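User: Could you write out the 3D structure of this protein bound to zinc ion? I've included everything you need below.
Assistant: Certainly. Input first, then the structure.
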Amino acid sequence: MPRSSQLLSSANLLPLDPHASSQLAAEWQSEVPVALQKNLWRLTAPNPSVMTGPGTNSYVVGSTEVGFWVVDPGPRDSAHQQRLFELTQGHIQGIICTHSHPDHSPGARPLQALCEQAGKAKPAIMGLPSAPTSRPDSHFAPERVLAEGEVLTLSSHFSLKAIHTPGHAANHVCLALLEDGVLFSGDHILNGSTTLIDGPDGHMGDYLDSLDRLDALCETHGIEFILPAHGHVLNQARAAIAHLKNHRLKREAKVIAAMRALPKAEPPEWVALAYDDTPPSLWPLALRSLLAHVQRIRELGLV
Ligand SMILES: [Zn+2]
């Protein structure tokens, strides 16, 4: 059986952003799983919105021989969990939640229940427990807590390495599929939108540190593709991470300039300066990111 890593040399097996490549005119839909390559599928939940983009991507890895992992079972949506069940025929070895936000983890228990009702082995729900800072709709207690750097295996074919990446959420974990050079980035890295850093569960300093750790992970394991929980596959993983970090640091520089220009002002007044390149209708959302920047700037004593 050819290893899927060999197939990655043909990058167009991974549908990238259709706007970047006219030959890949993938439309978003939630009915049919998209085969990204052999043994790897994306099924997008029917929850598109301003906050979730085209919807939450659930990823499925594995084969009928060795079983499957489901990464991010999505929001509680019976049709979505039924489709995940049908794709895997209930032969699920683990349901892994990148973090506890309501568009990612609430589908875990319904999917687990479908497997049990079908007489299949009960898949463990894995991830990291939510921190005390999480919102009431984001409480999460995995049955199996992933250790930092732990490598899960499905037979000898698939190895999934967990890395704790706080920043977007305190209990966020990213997962690298080592054989295929693929990173499941959850909400830490998105395609087509900017990750919201919303304190106190979100933390800008942690976010940037986690980006550095993901870059090191990509270098160590030759990871080329990032599969985000919202949006299309990103290629050139390390360049994408560097671009993201640069974007954040540029914004931070604008926030520092605003704080120095109006030292007695309140954060909403700094937004108008630091986000002058953003439509005012988005400033209420930008304020949350600005507060995360201000926290990091003050922690570092930059202003
Ligand atoms: Zn999230």
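The first strand starts at residue 34 and ends at 37.
User: Perfect, thank you.
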